[in-house]
Amino acid sequence: MLLRLALAAGLAGLSLPAFAVTADQLVAKNLEARGGADKLRAITSMHTVGKMRLGGNLEAKTETFALAPDKFRQELSLQGLTAVQSWDGQQAWAINPFEGRRDPQKLSGDDTKDLVQSADIAGPLLDAQKKGERIEYLGTEDIDGTDAHKLRVTFKNGDSRVIYLDPDQFLEIRVVDHRIVRGQEQVQTTDVGEYEKVDGVYFPFEQGQNHIESAELNKPIDAAMFSFPTAKH
Fold this sequence. Notes:
By secondary structure, the protein is mostly beta strands.
């Protein structure tokens, strides 16, 4: 059962003065606000269905499948065509009929980065040190009138993500990804919000242009769906 969490409602008693904040404190508050580290660690799978606003009154159906600890697949369907991107923990591949490619194509290197990060269901703030990530506190910044706390996560591959946390709820309101793709830095900003509770854990149902309509955790997902297809479908 989903319970909408209004970001404006706040979580009583959690506010921290900026001068006293450390990265570890903010991470702990974020994990607590999302449902607790133990519940996040217990997630074995996640399946979402939603829609992406493409402009011009066009909306595409989106569907994602994640299987802990390292598998992720996303689909985007529009006008009878479905694009697929998948990561099975070792190999990434894609089908993109919108570019005339109906057969699966293997991806490598920089093209896999977004998929690899998406496979981390609980996100980079959980058990960061074990994953080889480094987290730094960067102070605060005004985000649409909110004096948000900034955390920078540096991944093992050298890419980074700046996470903006609401100062009252300590939930993410914006993420900015910095990735090196073919020698050039690419920056992607995503505003997130409209948190809903799924099996005791809060997830943002608004993620940039993508709106999640339903989500379920810990349901069986066939691991074979993430692997490179061995035959034409």
